[in-house]
TrEMBL record:
It is found in: Cell membrane. One of its GO terms (cellular component) is plasma membrane. GO terms for molecular function: transmembrane transporter activity. The chain crosses the membrane at residues 21-41, 291-312, 333-357, 377-406, 427-450, 690-715, 735-757, 777-796. The lineage of its organism: Bacteria, Pseudomonadati, Pseudomonadota, Alphaproteobacteria, Acetobacterales. Keywords: Cell membrane, Membrane, Transmembrane, Transmembrane helix. Residues 694-807 form the ABC3 transporter permease C-terminal domain. This is Transmembrane transport protein. It is a multi-pass membrane protein. Pfam families: FtsX (PF02687), MacB_PCD (PF12704).
């Protein structure tokens, strides 16, 4: 029985090689793109799902709505509210603080720099991480205990059996490893490698105590676990008034200036990944994931429509074959089985090819998008199998149940193959329109995304990005009193032209506080930091008005302590000028400003200079107003900044590392080239744009393959009509124009349908960018013209062959 089904199936498919090849390639490409996109969507939508109680976990964020200024949100928060949360809300089962900082780590002779997470004893009750060894009840029950990941255990000890081993963090006293945890999955909002309790200095010593007392010091995260979901609405409501309820060292007016109508809000753990992208703090945009899903669906839909269109179109050519088989005794059931088996066999062949293509492409896609997606067969096989089965069944329905119902006498006595007439053509044109609507939609979106990516890369960041290295290893506590001498030594490295240090540098924003002009009732939040000599020159910041810090003015630089002995003169950015209400940068010079929360209103700072706005955050982050104090004193959470020339970044980095290791052998060197930082920032959108380009290219290719096959079929069916037209005087050019116009008509309509849909999609996507391109008709027109050109090329050979063919060839079919 199986042989009787497979033998004619192979014979039919091999006899019509072009038809088989077009459908096999088109379906395989469409299914492969769909599988890849679904793996990406699955990866992005299952963030943090490894946490057992993820549905009961919430991150506490700050929502600031200062009067007269745009609202914004911080996911890094102050810890002022933390001691009161469980006291005021008994429904909160567990609450913890998280503060993650890169620090020096030593185990024996192995020295490294790792991100250390400091937290509270309730950590494992909130993040119930799987432990490979150790007891959850005692893993963090006392200071000095440390949990490390399995990968770090292997790195520092050569084995995951590391319980009881000693590890030194931040060059202080040794900690004891109390537990080894499984590595955090890559699709996690919080990635944990080393976990320990807060050291005592965070409760006793400035500036470490700032986030525990000061609402403006937003250093870490707060997570709470609420098992009773009915309590969440009430907690949400009351948290909005929480800053005023627990002002810390702020006055009520200071809280009002900072938060306005805002307060604390709860973000469900399952939403954090997408929410972070929404507020411009990492994560992945939900719109992006939706568009990737759309790309996959469009590619699959194009392939399926193409296959079904081709299969049903060619089915009519087999009417006489069906009639002869019925005359020779074939039953309708056997014909149904044969047609269905042919269709499903082809789709399963395409499915197998798609599995191979998807597995091969996934490695490249992972590298392109920065993902770590595994090829999960338990997910892939059912999806691919279902697509193959359903598409095969859909394509086989018409020949199985319509052709098998024809009466042999009607078919054999007819002068032409049976068909659906005008309805048949309408359906085919509708399917072609649907195909090219999907393809045009993807192509337009891809072109707009590419334009936005180029625009973002060309943005003026207010500084000179090339030739700049940031050394974050300088923030090590043991180097605090040696910062200036170390940077002076690094400035002597060949290729280095100038070196400085600051806590405001590319991709690092320092604390924010509320500032105002004396006598003003409203304040606004700005980021402030410390600039040592040469800071603005090193970054290449552009002076707009006034002057920069220098040694000729005694009020410019603090000499001993950057926290308590700041200079009384400040430099601000152009946006800060606007926020303070000055009419121009020149008008701000010599004016006094002050912190809104400081009780002593006699403390004022004088503006001596205005610089152009610097975009220190990510590409999706809004430009923030900046304020700089001058200092020569040690700075907390500082980075060294070196300007170099005459060498590649890699060569200069090696030179700096060599001198660093000679100067500071006990602190691991950690630095990055700013060009690499920015390239990584741009890479995400550029790579996603590349994925869209590939998806749209596949969709257009599938549509054109189908159009080529359909044109071959249609031209064959129209040979009699073409021959009669030529006998009646039509020239080859007339026939060519007629055929091409008939095929292009549904494609033109498809591009028109795609215009408004893609316009809405791209307007929504562009809205997430602080600076973006204006959406113009140009990409829509370009895609329309290119689509028509490609489609014309696809059908030209068939139309040209038919137009040049002698009329007698077609008229012979009538006779």
């Amino acid at each position: 029985m199986l042989t009787e089904i497979l033998t004619p199936t192979f014979r039919t498919l091999s006899r019509h090689r072009l038809y088989t090849l077009i459908n096999l390639i088109g379906l395989a490409l469409g299914i492969a793109v769909f599988l890849i996109m679904m793996l990406i969507v699955r990866y992005e939508t299952t963030y943090d799902s490894y946490i057992p109680h993820a549905t009961n976990l919430y991150q506490v964020d700050e929502l600031l709505k200062p009067a007269g200024h745009a609202a914004y949100e911080n996911d890094s928060v102050s810890f002022v509210s933390f001691p009161f949360l469980r006291q005021d809300f008994p429904e909160i089962d567990h609450a913890i603080r998280l503060l993650s900082i890169p620090q020096a780590v030593r185990a024996g002779e192995i020295l490294g720099r790792e991100t250390v997470t400091m937290t509270d004893q309730d950590f494992l009750s909130v993040f119930d991480l799987p432990l490979l060894s150790g007891d959850k009840a005692t893993a963090l029950d006392a200071p000095g205990k440390v949990i490390i990941s399995a990968s770090l255990a292997r790195k520092y000890f050569g084995t995951v059996d590391a319980l009881g081993r000693k590890i030194r963090i931040d060059n202080h006293e040794d900690g004891i490893i109390s537990a080894v945890m499984a590595d955090t999955p890559s699709n996690s909002s919080e990635v944990f490698t080393i976990i320990t309790l807060f050291p005592s200095k965070f409760f006793t010593t400035l500036p470490y105590t700032l986030p525990f007392k000061n609402w403006g010091s937003t250093w870490g995260h707060i997570y709470i676990r609420i098992d009773n979901s009915n309590a969440v609405p009430r907690i949400r409501k009351e948290l909005m008034a929480y800053p005023a309820r627990h002002p810390g060292n702020y006055s009520q007016s200071g809280i009002k200036n900072m938060f306005g109508a805002g307060g604390l809000i709860l973000i469900p753990m399952k939403d954090i990944h997408f929410h972070n992208a929404h507020i411009g703090d990492g994560g992945t945009s939900r719109q992006l994931v939706d568009i990737l899903a759309l790309v996959g669906l469009a590619a699959l839909a194009t392939a399926l429509v193409n296959y079904i269109n081709m299969a049903t179109a060619r089915a009519g050519l087999r009417a006489k074959d069906v009639a002869m088989r019925k005359v020779l005794g074939a039953s309708r059931f056997s014909l149904v089985i044969r047609f269905m088996s042919e269709a499903i066999f082809l789709t399963f062949g395409a499915g197998l090819l798609a599995l191979a293509l998807a597995e091969f492409a996934l490695q490249w896609v992972n590298a392109l998008g920065g993902w770590q997606i595994s090829y999960d067969w338990s997910f892939i096989l059912p999806v691919a199998g279902s697509i193959a089965l359903l598409s095969g069944a859909a394509a086989g329905l018409y020949p199985s149940f319509v052709l098998s119902a024809f009466r042999p006498v009607d078919v054999l006595s007819a002068s032409r193959m049976p068909g659906g007439g005008r309805l048949d053509r309408t359906v085919r044109n509708a399917l072609v329109t649907l195909q090219f609507t999907f393809a045009s939609l993807l192509a337009i979106c891809t072109l707009v995304m590419a334009q936005q990516a180029r625009f973002v890369q060309a943005l003026d960041r207010g500084m000179t990005n090339h030739g700049l290295i940031v050394i974050d290893a300088l923030s090590d506590d043991t180097l605090k009193n040696r910062q200036a001498s170390i940077m002076a030594r690094l400035a002597e490295v060949p290729g280095a032209t100038i070196a400085t240090r600051s806590d405001l540098y590319p991709h690092h924003m320092s604390d924010s506080d509320d500032w105002k002009r004396p006598g003003q009732s409203t304040a606004f939040s700005l980021h402030w930091g410390y600039a040592t000599p040469g800071y603005f020159e090193t970054l290449g910041a552009r002076l707009v008005a006034g002057r920069l810090f220098d040694d000729e003015h005694g009020q410019d630089y603090a000499q001993t302590n950057a926290t308590s002995d700041s200079g009384k003169n400040v430099v601000i950015s152009r946006l800060a000028v606007k926020q303070f209400g000055f009419s121009s940068p020149e008008a701000a010079l010599g004016q006094d400003i002050q912190e809104a929360q400081v009780a002593d209103k006699s403390i004022k700072y004088r503006v001596i200079g205005v610089i152009e706005d610097m975009r220190l955050g990510g590409i999706q982050s809004a430009i923030r107003p900046l304020l700089f104090f001058g200092t020569k004193a040690p700075i907390d959470y500082v980075a060294g900044i070196v300007r170099y020339t005459g060498a590649t970044g890699q060569v200069e980095m090696a030179r700096l590392q060599k001198v660093w290791e000679e100067t500071v052998p006990d602190v691991p060197f950690s630095a990055r080239d700013v060009s690499d930082i920015l390239a990584e920032d741009y890479r995400s959108d550029a790579n996603h744009s590349a994925l869209f380009s590939i998806g749209s290219l596949v969709a257009v290719s599938i549509a054109c393959l189908g159009l080529y096959g359909l044109s071959a079929f249609t031209v064959t069916r129209k040979m009699q009509e073409i021959s009669i037209r030529k006998v009646l005087g039509a020239r080859s050019g007339d026939i060519l124009r007629l055929l091409i116009s008939q095929f292009l008509r549904p494609i033109v309509f498809a591009t028109i349908v795609a215009w408004p849909v893609s316009w809405i999609l791209m307007q929504t996507w562009l809205s997430k960018f602080d600076q973006r391109i204006s959406l113009t008709p140009a990409p829509f027109i370009v895609v329309t013209l290119l689509t028509l050109c490609v489609a014309t090329v696809a059908i030209f050979s068939q139309a040209w062959r038919a137009a040049r063919r002698p009329p007698v060839a077609g008229l012979r079919q009538i006779l």
